[in-house]
Amino acid sequence: EPKAPGIQECLPKLQSKRPTAASKPAVQPVTVLPAKLPATKVSENQVLTAVSSLYDDELKPYGRILKKRLLEQLNGSDIDAQHLLKTCQASSSLRVEPEEGGDWSALLVGRSEFFIDCNTEDIYPEEMWSAAAAYFAGSDEVIPGGRYSCALALVAKKLPF
After folding, report:
1. Which of 14, 72, 100, 124 has its CA 20 to 30 A from that of 117?
2. What is the pLDDT of residue 34?
3. Residue 98: CB partners within 8 Å, gap ≥ 6?
4. Beta-bridge partners for 113
5. How high is the mean pLDDT in each 10-residue block of the chain (161 residues)?
C-alpha cells in the first residue's frame, strides 16, 4: 500500500519553490484615497427651509426625503442623519412623528398639512399619461431609479406634460 509523502520528502520541493530576491515581484505603489469628509451637521434654519420647500411641493417631509432635499440644497454634502433627527426634535417649529418602517416625519407646527398620497386614486388626466408614454416610448435615455431622483430629473427637463 503506497504511503503519502511525509514532510521530510516534501521539504526539498517546497524550498525549491521559494521566491528568490531576483524573482520577487516589484512592490506596486498604493493609491491613497482621500479620507471621507465628516457628515454635515445642518442648522435648524436649514432644516426649516428644507421642510417648508417639501410642504410647497406637497411632499410629506419624511426623514429620508428631508435628507435628500437637504443634500440637494447643500450641493451633495453628506448629512449626519442622527444630528438631523435631533435638530428636528429640538425645534419648537417642528413636530416629529414616527412613521412606518422605522422612518419619521418632521411636520411644521401651525401649518396645514396637504400632502400628495402616491398610493391613492390617480388625479392626473389621461392626456398627461398618454404624452408621458409617448415620450418614454421614443426615448432610450437612462433616468434615476428612485422616485425622488427620477422626479428631479424629469422636472429639470421641463417636459410639456
Report:
1. 72
2. 65
3. 104
4. none
5. 55 55 62 72 96 93 94 85 96 96 95 83 86 87 78 87 81
